[in-house]
Protein backbone atom coordinates (compact mmCIF):
# COMPACT_ATOMS: atom_id res chain seq x y z
CA UNK A 1 0.00 0.00 0.00
CA UNK A 2 1.18 3.50 -0.84
CA UNK A 3 1.16 5.60 2.34
CA UNK A 4 3.67 8.37 1.64
CA UNK A 5 2.49 11.70 0.25
CA UNK A 6 5.94 12.00 -1.34
CA UNK A 7 5.70 8.77 -3.31
CA UNK A 8 6.83 8.99 -6.97
CA UNK A 9 3.32 7.81 -7.88
CA UNK A 10 1.82 10.89 -6.21
CA UNK A 11 4.25 13.20 -7.95
CA UNK A 12 3.63 11.61 -11.36
CA UNK A 13 -0.15 11.92 -11.06
CA UNK A 14 0.04 15.50 -9.76
CA UNK A 15 2.23 16.43 -12.73
CA UNK A 16 -0.54 15.28 -15.10
CA UNK A 17 -3.09 17.41 -13.25
CA UNK A 18 -1.13 20.52 -12.35
CA UNK A 19 -0.62 23.85 -14.07
CA UNK A 20 1.86 22.24 -16.47
CA UNK A 21 -0.33 19.22 -17.03
CA UNK A 22 -0.62 19.74 -20.79
CA UNK A 23 3.15 19.42 -21.16
CA UNK A 24 3.29 16.35 -18.91
CA UNK A 25 0.42 14.67 -20.73
CA UNK A 26 2.03 15.26 -24.11
CA UNK A 27 5.43 14.04 -22.96
CA UNK A 28 4.13 10.87 -21.31
CA UNK A 29 1.12 10.38 -23.62
CA UNK A 30 -0.95 9.60 -20.53
CA UNK A 31 -3.82 11.28 -18.70
CA UNK A 32 -5.86 10.90 -15.51
CA UNK A 33 -9.38 9.49 -15.16
CA UNK A 34 -11.42 10.12 -12.02
CA UNK A 35 -14.91 9.16 -10.75
CA UNK A 36 -16.63 5.79 -10.57
CA UNK A 37 -18.69 6.25 -13.74
CA UNK A 38 -15.73 7.27 -15.90
CA UNK A 39 -13.50 4.48 -14.61
CA UNK A 40 -16.27 1.95 -15.19
CA UNK A 41 -16.70 3.18 -18.77
CA UNK A 42 -13.02 3.04 -19.65
CA UNK A 43 -12.76 -0.52 -18.33
CA UNK A 44 -15.85 -1.53 -20.29
CA UNK A 45 -14.88 0.10 -23.58
CA UNK A 46 -11.09 0.62 -23.61
CA UNK A 47 -9.50 -1.49 -20.86
CA UNK A 48 -6.23 -1.91 -22.74
CA UNK A 49 -5.59 1.84 -22.42
CA UNK A 50 -5.55 1.81 -18.61
CA UNK A 51 -2.00 1.61 -17.31
CA UNK A 52 -2.41 2.09 -13.56
CA UNK A 53 -5.31 2.14 -11.12
CA UNK A 54 -5.13 3.59 -7.60
CA UNK A 55 -7.76 2.54 -5.04
CA UNK A 56 -8.56 3.27 -1.44
CA UNK A 57 -10.35 0.57 0.51
CA UNK A 58 -13.66 2.40 -0.01
CA UNK A 59 -12.89 2.86 -3.70
CA UNK A 60 -12.24 -0.86 -4.15
CA UNK A 61 -15.63 -1.62 -2.63
CA UNK A 62 -17.38 0.86 -4.94
CA UNK A 63 -15.67 -0.51 -8.03
CA UNK A 64 -16.88 -4.00 -7.27
CA UNK A 65 -16.05 -6.91 -9.54
CA UNK A 66 -15.28 -5.08 -12.80
CA UNK A 67 -12.57 -7.06 -14.67
CA UNK A 68 -9.35 -5.08 -14.47
CA UNK A 69 -7.39 -7.15 -16.96
CA UNK A 70 -3.63 -6.59 -16.83
CA UNK A 71 -3.89 -3.14 -15.24
CA UNK A 72 -1.40 -2.52 -12.45
CA UNK A 73 -3.39 -1.80 -9.27
CA UNK A 74 -2.08 0.03 -6.19
CA UNK A 75 -3.85 0.39 -2.87
CA UNK A 76 -3.46 3.84 -1.34
CA UNK A 77 -4.56 5.57 1.84
CA UNK A 78 -7.34 8.20 1.71
CA UNK A 79 -4.70 10.84 2.41
CA UNK A 80 -2.63 9.78 -0.59
CA UNK A 81 -5.73 9.73 -2.79
CA UNK A 82 -6.63 13.24 -1.65
CA UNK A 83 -3.12 14.41 -2.58
CA UNK A 84 -3.41 12.85 -6.03
CA UNK A 85 -6.90 13.84 -7.08
CA UNK A 86 -8.15 16.94 -8.86
CA UNK A 87 -11.65 16.70 -7.37
CA UNK A 88 -12.98 18.28 -4.17
CA UNK A 89 -14.57 15.04 -2.92
CA UNK A 90 -12.49 12.06 -4.14
CA UNK A 91 -14.38 8.82 -4.77
CA UNK A 92 -11.44 6.67 -3.75
CA UNK A 93 -10.28 5.72 -7.23
CA UNK A 94 -8.07 7.21 -9.91
CA UNK A 95 -6.66 5.74 -13.13
CA UNK A 96 -3.81 6.72 -15.42
CA UNK A 97 -4.48 5.81 -19.03
CA UNK A 98 -2.66 5.93 -22.35
CA UNK A 99 -3.80 8.58 -24.82
CA UNK A 100 -5.05 6.59 -27.85
CA UNK A 101 -3.06 6.94 -31.06
CA UNK A 102 -6.03 7.33 -33.39
CA UNK A 103 -5.26 7.76 -37.08
CA UNK A 104 -7.55 10.25 -38.76
CA UNK A 105 -6.20 9.15 -42.15
CA UNK A 106 -7.19 5.58 -41.37
CA UNK A 107 -10.61 6.72 -40.21
CA UNK A 108 -11.42 8.62 -43.39
CA UNK A 109 -9.87 6.10 -45.77
CA UNK A 110 -12.23 3.35 -44.59
CA UNK A 111 -14.97 2.37 -47.01
CA UNK A 112 -17.95 3.98 -45.33
CA UNK A 113 -21.21 5.58 -46.35
CA UNK A 114 -23.16 8.33 -44.62
CA UNK A 115 -20.34 9.24 -42.26
CA UNK A 116 -21.17 12.08 -39.87
CA UNK A 117 -18.36 14.11 -38.34
CA UNK A 118 -18.32 17.16 -36.04
CA UNK A 119 -15.30 19.45 -36.39
CA UNK A 120 -14.54 22.11 -33.77
CA UNK A 121 -12.29 25.01 -34.72
CA UNK A 122 -10.22 26.40 -31.83
CA UNK A 123 -12.72 25.50 -29.11
CA UNK A 124 -11.35 26.66 -25.76
CA UNK A 125 -13.72 25.80 -22.93
CA UNK A 126 -13.19 22.36 -21.30
CA UNK A 127 -16.85 22.06 -20.32
CA UNK A 128 -17.94 22.75 -23.89
CA UNK A 129 -15.45 20.24 -25.27
CA UNK A 130 -16.64 17.49 -22.95
CA UNK A 131 -20.28 18.32 -23.71
CA UNK A 132 -19.85 18.17 -27.50
CA UNK A 133 -18.06 14.83 -27.21
CA UNK A 134 -20.99 13.57 -25.17
CA UNK A 135 -23.46 14.95 -27.74
CA UNK A 136 -21.56 13.37 -30.62
CA UNK A 137 -21.77 10.05 -28.82
CA UNK A 138 -25.45 10.45 -27.95
CA UNK A 139 -26.49 11.30 -31.50
CA UNK A 140 -24.43 8.63 -33.20
CA UNK A 141 -21.76 10.76 -34.88
CA UNK A 142 -18.85 8.76 -36.23
CA UNK A 143 -16.10 11.06 -34.92
CA UNK A 144 -15.52 14.30 -33.05
CA UNK A 145 -12.55 16.27 -34.35
CA UNK A 146 -10.73 19.27 -32.87
CA UNK A 147 -8.44 21.72 -34.67
CA UNK A 148 -5.05 22.77 -33.42
CA UNK A 149 -5.15 25.60 -30.84
CA UNK A 150 -8.10 23.88 -29.18
CA UNK A 151 -8.42 22.82 -25.54
CA UNK A 152 -6.56 19.66 -24.51
CA UNK A 153 -9.17 16.91 -24.85
CA UNK A 154 -7.44 14.84 -22.15
CA UNK A 155 -7.42 17.55 -19.49
CA UNK A 156 -9.26 16.58 -16.28
CA UNK A 157 -12.20 18.93 -16.86
CA UNK A 158 -12.83 17.67 -20.40
CA UNK A 159 -12.56 14.04 -19.29
CA UNK A 160 -15.10 14.63 -16.51
CA UNK A 161 -17.48 16.62 -18.73
CA UNK A 162 -17.48 13.90 -21.40
CA UNK A 163 -19.16 11.58 -18.86
CA UNK A 164 -17.67 8.43 -20.36
CA UNK A 165 -18.29 9.31 -24.02
CA UNK A 166 -14.57 9.88 -24.51
CA UNK A 167 -14.25 6.10 -24.93
CA UNK A 168 -17.36 5.59 -27.07
CA UNK A 169 -16.55 7.68 -30.16
CA UNK A 170 -13.26 8.29 -32.03
CA UNK A 171 -11.64 11.58 -31.04
CA UNK A 172 -9.00 13.37 -33.10
CA UNK A 173 -6.95 16.43 -32.12
CA UNK A 174 -4.85 18.97 -34.00
CA UNK A 175 -6.56 18.49 -37.37
CA UNK A 176 -6.13 21.42 -39.75
CA UNK A 177 -8.61 23.03 -42.10
CA UNK A 178 -6.53 21.72 -45.02
CA UNK A 179 -6.87 18.16 -43.72
CA UNK A 180 -10.64 18.54 -43.38
CA UNK A 181 -10.82 19.77 -46.98
CA UNK A 182 -8.75 16.81 -48.12
CA UNK A 183 -10.93 14.35 -46.22
CA UNK A 184 -14.09 15.95 -47.65
CA UNK A 185 -12.67 15.51 -51.14
CA UNK A 186 -11.70 11.88 -50.47
CA UNK A 187 -15.08 10.90 -49.06
CA UNK A 188 -17.35 13.18 -51.08
CA UNK A 189 -18.56 14.73 -47.84
CA UNK A 190 -20.52 17.96 -47.81
CA UNK A 191 -19.34 20.57 -45.30
CA UNK A 192 -21.80 22.64 -43.27
CA UNK A 193 -21.26 25.51 -40.84
CA UNK A 194 -23.73 27.33 -38.61
CA UNK A 195 -24.39 31.00 -39.37
CA UNK A 196 -27.23 32.99 -37.84
CA UNK A 197 -27.65 34.98 -41.08
CA UNK A 198 -27.74 31.98 -43.42
CA UNK A 199 -30.71 31.44 -45.72
CA UNK A 200 -30.61 27.64 -45.38
CA UNK A 201 -32.46 26.57 -42.24
CA UNK A 202 -31.12 23.72 -40.12
CA UNK A 203 -33.99 21.31 -40.84
CA UNK A 204 -33.44 21.65 -44.59
CA UNK A 205 -29.66 21.48 -44.27
CA UNK A 206 -29.87 18.40 -42.07
CA UNK A 207 -32.22 16.69 -44.50
CA UNK A 208 -29.83 17.44 -47.35
CA UNK A 209 -26.85 16.17 -45.35
CA UNK A 210 -28.64 12.97 -44.38
CA UNK A 211 -28.27 11.52 -47.88
CA UNK A 212 -24.48 11.27 -47.79
CA UNK A 213 -21.27 11.96 -45.85
CA UNK A 214 -21.23 15.21 -43.90
CA UNK A 215 -18.82 17.31 -41.86
CA UNK A 216 -20.38 19.86 -39.50
CA UNK A 217 -18.06 22.70 -38.51
CA UNK A 218 -18.34 24.84 -35.37
CA UNK A 219 -16.28 27.86 -34.40
CA UNK A 220 -14.62 29.32 -31.34
CA UNK A 221 -16.81 30.34 -28.37
CA UNK A 222 -15.89 34.04 -28.60
CA UNK A 223 -15.08 34.54 -32.29
CA UNK A 224 -17.33 31.99 -33.93
CA UNK A 225 -16.15 30.64 -37.28
CA UNK A 226 -14.34 33.34 -39.26
CA UNK A 227 -15.72 33.99 -42.74
CA UNK A 228 -12.37 33.17 -44.32
CA UNK A 229 -12.32 29.75 -42.66
CA UNK A 230 -15.85 29.04 -43.82
CA UNK A 231 -15.00 30.16 -47.35
CA UNK A 232 -11.78 28.13 -47.41
CA UNK A 233 -13.76 25.02 -46.52
CA UNK A 234 -16.44 25.76 -49.08
CA UNK A 235 -18.96 25.21 -46.30
CA UNK A 236 -22.68 25.61 -46.78
CA UNK A 237 -24.02 28.01 -44.16
CA UNK A 238 -26.93 26.79 -42.04
CA UNK A 239 -29.04 28.80 -39.60
CA UNK A 240 -30.57 27.49 -36.37
CA UNK A 241 -34.01 29.12 -36.04
CA UNK A 242 -34.49 30.95 -32.73
CA UNK A 243 -38.08 31.81 -31.90
CA UNK A 244 -37.54 33.14 -28.38
CA UNK A 245 -35.79 36.27 -27.15
CA UNK A 246 -32.32 34.76 -26.72
CA UNK A 247 -29.82 36.45 -29.02
CA UNK A 248 -27.89 33.24 -29.67
CA UNK A 249 -26.97 29.79 -28.39
CA UNK A 250 -23.69 28.88 -26.78
CA UNK A 251 -21.37 26.58 -28.69
CA UNK A 252 -22.18 23.32 -26.93
CA UNK A 253 -25.94 23.92 -27.17
CA UNK A 254 -25.77 24.85 -30.85
CA UNK A 255 -23.67 21.79 -31.65
CA UNK A 256 -26.07 19.54 -29.75
CA UNK A 257 -29.08 20.97 -31.62
CA UNK A 258 -27.34 20.47 -34.98
CA UNK A 259 -26.30 16.90 -34.18
CA UNK A 260 -29.82 16.02 -33.06
CA UNK A 261 -31.35 17.54 -36.22
CA UNK A 262 -28.94 15.66 -38.47
CA UNK A 263 -29.66 12.39 -36.67
CA UNK A 264 -33.44 12.94 -36.79
CA UNK A 265 -33.24 13.61 -40.54
CA UNK A 266 -31.67 10.18 -41.12
CA UNK A 267 -34.47 8.22 -39.48
**How many helices does DSSP assign?**
12
Percentage of helical residues?
Answer: 40-55%
Please list the strands of the largest sheet in the order they lie side by side: 7-6-5-10-8-11-9
- The proportion of strand residues reads 15-25%
Name the poorly predicted regions. none
* Distance linking N and C termini: 53 Å
Succession of helices and strands: HHEHEHEHEHEHEHEHEEHEHEH
Question: Which class of secondary structure composition applies to the elements?
Answer: alpha/beta
Identify the overall geometry.
Answer: elongated
Give the rounded overall mean pLDDT: 93
Radius of gyration: 20 Å
Q: Please give the largest β-sheet.
A: 7 strands, parallel
User: What's the total number of strands?
Assistant: 11
Amino acid sequence: MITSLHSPHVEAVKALLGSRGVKARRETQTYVIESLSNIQEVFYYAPSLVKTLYLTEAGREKLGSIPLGKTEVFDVTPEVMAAMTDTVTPQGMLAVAQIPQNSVDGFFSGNRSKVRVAYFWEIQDPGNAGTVIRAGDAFGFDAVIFSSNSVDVYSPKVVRASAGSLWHVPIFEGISIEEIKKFASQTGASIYATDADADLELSNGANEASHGNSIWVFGNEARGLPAEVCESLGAKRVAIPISGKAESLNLATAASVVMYAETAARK
